[in-house]
Amino acid sequence: MPAEAWTLGLGAVAAAMVGFSKTGVPGTGILVIPLMAALFGGRLSVGATLPLLILGDVLAVALYRQHAQWARLRTLAPWLLLGLLLGSGLLKLLGDLRLKADPLSPMIGVLVLVMLALNLLRGRLGQRLVPHSREGTVVTGALAGFTTMVSNAAGPIMSIFLNSSGLPKDQLMGTTAWTFLLLNLAKVPFLALLTADNPQEPLYTLATLRFDLLMVPLVLAGAWAGRALQRRLPEQAFSGALLSLAAVSAVLLIVRH
């Protein structure tokens, strides 16, 4: 299969999963991260994935915009920003080192496996996994900001924190949608500054932006499918299959680098 067809094929799957996860089964979005890293390498995948995530977030906000609990976001906001700064520092350091190997791909693989483990622990331990203290909020926010900056993989961390709130479903969906939209928009200037500072090690290129434009219809189709099939899918089995694929993809990212 030609390389371009392979890229478009895997990219189409990833883009559709972005839309589907934002309106259908949220946890399945973790599959997108190793797929995009396999296509673009760890560093470029960070910027290549971000526009697709923002589009998915806009669609989710359009559906649930009136249901956000802003007090939850305000407690996390400064610590999320701290995590973004720490993640940007790591991306700058790795870019300045200009290593021949791709250090971010195996790192992303490890982070995806950690997020999958947290997802499993959430199901087993429930509220006991959730940090309710101020210190726990600081750690949660900083870790989520750092993880999303270097890999776009903060979903499980934020889900654990927000799902512990006991909010009704619509308020939970609205708060989650606004959280990720604002968080992903906040990453844009960081990626732009890091790329301008070190154009030899970019986090996005014209090629990745063209790819994102091509994938817009797939994100929209995935979002429509997620909304339409939300109540009809055997969610547990479907999520299990996709999370297993994410685990395999993450392991491949690690062993191939």
UniProtKB/TrEMBL annotation:
* Pfam families hit by this protein: TauE
Q: Does the keyword Transmembrane apply?
A: yes
Question: Where is this protein found?
Answer: Cell membrane
Q: What membrane topology does this protein have?
A: Multi-pass membrane protein
**Keywords associated with the record:** Cell membrane, Membrane, Plasmid, Transmembrane, Transmembrane helix, Transport
The record lists the membrane-crossing segments as 31-64, 76-95, 107-125, 137-157, 177-196, 203-225, 237-255
Q: Name one cellular component (GO) term.
A: plasma membrane
The family database entries (PANTHER family) matched by this protein are listed as: MEMBRANE TRANSPORTER PROTEIN YDHB-RELATED, TRANSMEMBRANE PROTEIN YFCA
Recorded family membership: Belongs to the 4-toluene sulfonate uptake permease (TSUP) (TC 2.A.102) family.
- Designated name of the protein: Probable membrane transporter protein
Q: Which organism does this sequence originate in? A: Deinococcus sonorensis KR-87
| Organism lineage string | Bacteria, Thermotogati, Deinococcota, Deinococci, Deinococcales
